[in-house]
Amino acid sequence: MKIFMDTADVGEIREAVSMGMVDGVTTNPSLIAKTGKPFNQVIEEICGIVDGPISAEAVSPDAEGMLKEARELSGIHKNVVVKIPMTTEGLKAVKICSAEGIKTNVTLVFQSLQGLLAAKAGAGYVSPFIGRLDDICQEGMDMVGDLLAMLRNYNYPTEVIVASIRHSIHVVQSALLGAHVVTLPFKVLDRLVNHPLTDSGIEKFLADYKKIPKP
Ligand code: E4P
Questions:
Q1: Which residue from 22, 117, 200, 209 puts its CA 20 to 30 A from 150's CA?
Q2: In the chain, count of helices (H) and strands (E)?
Q3: Based on the structure, what is the number of domains in the chain?
């Protein structure tokens, strides 16, 4: 399973890269707004740190506007993947992007069939948002299982990025379902790495090491 970082904070991305954990990055306008820096500058910086797919989101409401943005964003760096929202206009834009060789990540997917349609339009990635479904008392992970089964049934090359991940159990479930990618906020990655029994084990070994007589 590939791990993407779901952040636009280059400090967090560098830290995760130094741990050997980053296969790609997903951003969205909310994450980029938090940095206080211009949109394209953030994407360029991230592309300079991670040699993998970097998602940057188009915000136009219509296919024509999305296409214009997609052509501009994909010109920033060869690794840029254009995030397109799952709408009628979005599907039109994905179809043309696919024909032009621009890789897309269809975002804001909340229903398995939306993901299937995005794959049919030619999306390279689809992003089911599971945490936001859990937030409204719907089991987000059910959608991921259904979507993966549908894509496998018809041999679509589209990869599923499990997004809107809130905690470690989401990551365990994604791996058990065979999701292609999880995109993680830095705090979730940190929780996956650390365990209190590891910390207390290290403390005990260090305390005992100090008792060993020096030659
Ligand atoms: C994914 O591409 C999105 O940026 C992200 O996972 C959204 O997560 P949120 O629901 O925590 O905002």
A1: 22
A2: 11, 8
A3: 1
